Fold each of these.
Amino acid sequence: MAYEDLRSFLEKLETNGQLIHYKDPVMPEPDIALIGRAATDMGEKAPAVLLENIKGYKDAKIALNVHGSWANHALMLGMDKNATVREQFFEFANRWDGTREGTVEWMKGDAPCQEVKYTEDINLYDIIPAFRVNQYDGGFYLSKACIVTRDPDDPDNFGKQNVGTYRIQLQGKDTLGAQIMPFHDSGVHIVNAEKKGINLPIAICLGVEPVVTVMASTPLKYDQSEYTFGSALKGSPIMLTKTLDGGLDIPAYCEFVIEGELQTGTRTPEGPFGEFPGSYSGVRKQFLIKVNKVTTRKNPIFENLYVGRPWTEHDTLIGLNTSVPLYRQLKETMPEVQCVNAIYQHGLTVIISTNSRFGGYAKSVAFRLASTPHGISYAKNIILVDGDVDPFNLTQVMWAVSTRVRPEKDVIVLKNVPGMPLDPCSEPPGMGGKLIIDATTPVPPEPVLREVRMVDPLPAAEGYKKILEKMYAELSR
Amino acid sequence: MKCVRCASDKVSTVAKAPDGSGIWEVYNCGLCNFAWRSTEPKENIDPEKRDPWFQLDKDKVDDLPLIVPIVKH
């Protein structure tokens, strides 16, 4: 995979016709968010956009929509940009089976991410061309940052060092607000630091190579390193360096690094922010970060995420890294599970294709999903389809729902179970219900009430599909 | 100057356009942490035109709920 950083990935996107250089002048508000919205609205082959002329800034560049389409996501995985979501799902699942780890290396000599150093009189608003993402956000947000912390109870443990994506709000010139939940790995680090009465060193990395950004938003186990798993996904080592303060490992080729200390024993007003369900979170007292250093590459590129009313880049970024761990966890005890589509709002709706070992089995698959770590609070709507139905093909899924579901037998509503607080339906926040729709074909011992045979799928047509696609592509040459 | 969200007077100028053009300034409220740029659409930064749902009472900022309770040392 021929890229080692954001810049070389942007070149790869350009080579594949997936990068637009936007050179006309734009105002930070509302133009940048509007362009982010427009790019993400361009569908499965939406390009990334590099803004090169932002009014008020000198030589600033902003990259949007880098992970914002399945075409870009395929290129990140080293696949053809026309690869289907299903093909990308299995490639992702095969490369990252939850056990293989990759390798990391530490850069010898000066790292590119520390070419420019700011160590006093820091003003984040001067250094970073930040902008308002959604109209009523509480400020300018870093929505695609990789945030690095260590466990103060085990500070030398590389695996327990966490790289996570959490929303960061620019507040004062050198202060930030951060939303990090107790169930996040960094949340554990903060609570451990707060118990000790010490502040927590933190590094906020922007413009990181794309696989690390994907891993930063993947639910790994507590002691698994996002860097080594990012390397496994990418198929080559991840190059790291140390922060100037020396305590944290950061991607050597990233564009910006904000170093500071998360202040324990205090909280600061933060929010609202237009979140991934397409609704604003409230204003709350959250974590405060005091910045003490910023380093950058020369002419750094600020990469940020437009997130708002779905579908947005956020959905593509976390779509398969939500689906694959659920698939792995189900497959451990239920090998009949064929594929999992959890790309809708971080898995608030999940579609599972499964074969049935015996009558009613698909409902058991749903119960299993609802008891996985992620599924407990996220998986609210669970749809089961037969193993020969592609859960990423909604036309097939709707066919299954239309022709298999017997409402009195196949629809289950569970009341008053855990929910996801950011889901606007969750009431009270953190609780809710679950809907299970079993659209699989009944199997013994359940009798099929009417003697009906479904038309078989035609896998042999796949070869002709490829021939026709090739002939079609030649039509437009 | 007052904060366009909570109306406190703890507002400071945190940035002027770094290219020296003077095209915009950025302000930050030291009480509720709202930040805004002088050139944003009125619906974002004019208290009269902002959606009242998103306004704050400066006297209630201290009472905002905590997401993570402070652990006593």
Note: The radius of gyration of chain B is 15 Å.
Amino acid sequence: MTKKWMKGIAAGSILLSATLQGAVDFTKDVMPILEERCLKCHGHIKESGKVVDKGNLDITKPESIKEFLKAGHPGDSSFYNLVVSDDEDEYMPPKGDRLTDKQKKVIHDWIKQGASFDGYTKKEKGESLLQKLAKETPVPNAAAVAHFEQMGALVLPLAMKSPLLQINFKPLGSESNPEMTKRLVELKENLVWLNLSRAKINDASLSPVGELKKLTRLHLDNTAVTDAGLSSVASLSSLEYLNLYNTAVTDAGIAKLSSLKNLKKLFLWQSKVSAAGVEKLQKALPGAYIHFQTATMPKPTKQEDKNAPVKKK
Amino acid sequence: MALNNMIAEEKSSAIPRYPATAKKVIFLHMAGAPSQLELLDYKPLLKEMDGKPCPQSYLEGKKLAFAKGTPDMLGPQHTFINYGESGTIVSDRLPYFQSLIDEVTLIKSMHTDQFNHAPAQLMMHIGFARLGRPSIGYWMTYGFADKCRDVDKPMTALLKDLKTRGMLDDTLVVWGGEFGRTPLRENRGGKYGKWVGRDHSLGAFIMWMAGGGAQKGFSYGETDEVGYNVAENPVSIHDLQATMQHMMGFNHEKLTYYFQGRDYRLADVGGHVKKDLLLLS
């Protein structure tokens, strides 16, 4: 990779004849090109939290880009030369179409004008909740993982090389029991998805679950969980998905969930909640989708074709 | 043999590369190829052209399974109405499905290169039009070490049940046949038979997906004015397979297995993940 960059410097400048027209702004003019054509290999953040920075270039960081350019001199900047190179062993991007002449000129002019990063701030909003949770996450406690695996639960990383975990107790079936959640606390830094659907648990089983602050998905449907157990759930501030269908929870129980500001989906079909209780929670959590009844039939919005269709006899 | 090899290697790749948006897939395969022109691809122009000889421009370069000479165009045989907030146009032949139209993503621009039922079905399921390779379900179990289930219920009830129980969130339901149907009437052997029917069409057909991280109340791709060919945003079977693998958390380019001297992928050397079909997380 280093060799590639070195060759680029020697490749010379091809578009030196390009004339300068107007001031080129890094954020407004250059970044959109880099995001579209370079980000995938130079600055993309994987779900695991790892940054892809091939050739040590991360286009989201000015200090990284500066390593590959000489302000005012596009012809001496590999950042420009590799884009215009005709050598298929080195040109960038290596796959897909080459940059257009207009895009090349934007990069050329920006360097020529001094390669200023004024006004640029790195975008953080592209990060998903899972990416945020993956940051500074330690490797899961091997003894705790082994404990749950031996029990018969399915313990899996969320993705390859991710320190985040999902645990599904479904394989235990009738062997599940209220005590089995006890050691989940040992995995609190790692656990994001937890499935206790149809498990033989009770409200007390949820006190260790209440410690799992990184949980984003929690299945408690078809269990003996009641309003008392929801006090533990109410502290899970990262929760996005909560399934409580076919449980005995009531309006008093779901009122405790109004603290879950990240909640996007809540399932309450066949529980003891009322329409009034759901409405109240909906006001506290306007962005959440709360499902507690069977889906109804939408009416036609407009008759597109009133005439009888052509039928062949 | 392919299957045995896969099961042997199952454990080695049991971890997805991305967090999966779909943990389970239910593939409702409509063997026999339902007519998109009677169900979900409404073409007013085709109605006007009904009974008129098919213009040569449509027939040029086309290979037909049964129709001969210049068959007549065949208008839509049923009434179409807009449904749901998305205003999707649906035929009255799908009286229950209409109720969940806002849950699904229609892919109107599917196309294939196989026009006989059996090879076209193979293409859909194994990515090749010949026998001897593992099916899409085995690719998923190879990657995942999970079990698929047979579900035999009407599709709308299935979607409704999944939605009500909060399971549509991570279950992907895919519906569709192996190819489409022509806008012209089939005249097998040069004669119109007792039944009104359409011939096999490779140029365009419809599939839909729901749940598992697919968009909702959304249509992707368009066909031409009579629904014979894809006009916009084509989706090949390999694209569909790559997209489904992506939703299951797999990189379709990396999930390979070694067989008869080389590595194989489900979507062979083709297939692009159609990110427009996916919900943003």
Note: The radius of gyration of chain B is 19 Å.
